Structures are given as C-alpha cells and as structure tokens.
Amino acid sequence: MTHPDVAAGAALLDGTYVPSPIPRIRDQVAGFEASSGTRDNTLEDRPVIILTTVGASSLKVRKNPLIRALEGDVYVVVASAAGAPEDPQWYRNLTAHPVVRLQDGPTVDLRIAREVHGDEKDHWWQVAESFWPHFPEYREKAEGRDIPVVVLEPVD
C-alpha cells in the first residue's frame, strides 16, 4: 500500500516523545523498548505490540502497548478502551495522522492505519477476538458506542 504522506508522517514520528501519564503504560513501553520486546511484552500472558502515534493536535509522539493481533502481515487494533464510553486517545491520534510505527518484538516498521467498516469490520473483529478474549465483554460495556476497528497495513 502506498500513501502520499508517508515521508511526512514518518518525520513526525521522530518528534518529541511524551510518555504516558499512566504508570502501567509508561513502564510497559519503557521495558518493552529497552529490551527489544523481550520484557514487558504481554498482557495477561498474551503478546503486545507497541503502537507509536503522533498527537492529533499536540504533534507529540505517543506510545501504547496494544494486544498483538494480526492476519498475514496486517495487524488489527481495536479502540475498545476496555469498554469505556469514549474512544482512546491513540485512536484520535491515528485518525489525524495515519502513518504509525509498530514494534512487534525486535521488529519496528511503519504502517498505515485505516479504519474498517461493514463486512470488513466484522471480519477483523473476529480476528481480534481470536487473540483477546475480553473484546466481547468490552463491546457490552461500551453500551452502544461503536468501537472502532483499525487495520495497520504495511507501507510499500
């Protein structure tokens, strides 16, 4: 997949990193990155990736550990926020700046984020749920919020 803004988006990802104010997230990202993904690389014994985005308005670099879910070479991330009533900030960031960086273990690459809808969304929900058993309960807790599902596709 090609995207005309990949170079500009990649440059933004090299900007100023602002660690999460949430200690669990901040510490997991730090441990994961310091060890090239050999430490702090799970949530409830399931693998995570580190998703790097650019702040929608701040343009600061943000990092979040998310469940590792993929099919082939395409990753899927679910903006469930554990069923919270609002979308997580990382989702707003990647909708504003769809060029993201993904770290899976020692492998780091650029991706293009694309929200999916309809039948494609149904398919990717199934993929995501096969990796993380809590997504169905998060959908219930969201009480009608249409939880966004986003694929992270390779940059050609």
TrEMBL record:
<protein>
    <submittedName>
        <fullName>Nitroreductase/quinone reductase family protein</fullName>
    </submittedName>
</protein>
<dbReference type="Pfam" id="PF04075">
    <property type="entry name" value="F420H2_quin_red"/>
</dbReference>
<dbReference type="InterPro" id="IPR004378">
    <property type="entry name" value="F420H2_quin_Rdtase"/>
</dbReference>
<dbReference type="InterPro" id="IPR012349">
    <property type="entry name" value="Split_barrel_FMN-bd"/>
</dbReference>
<comment type="similarity">
    <text>Belongs to the F420H(2)-dependent quinone reductase family.</text>
</comment>
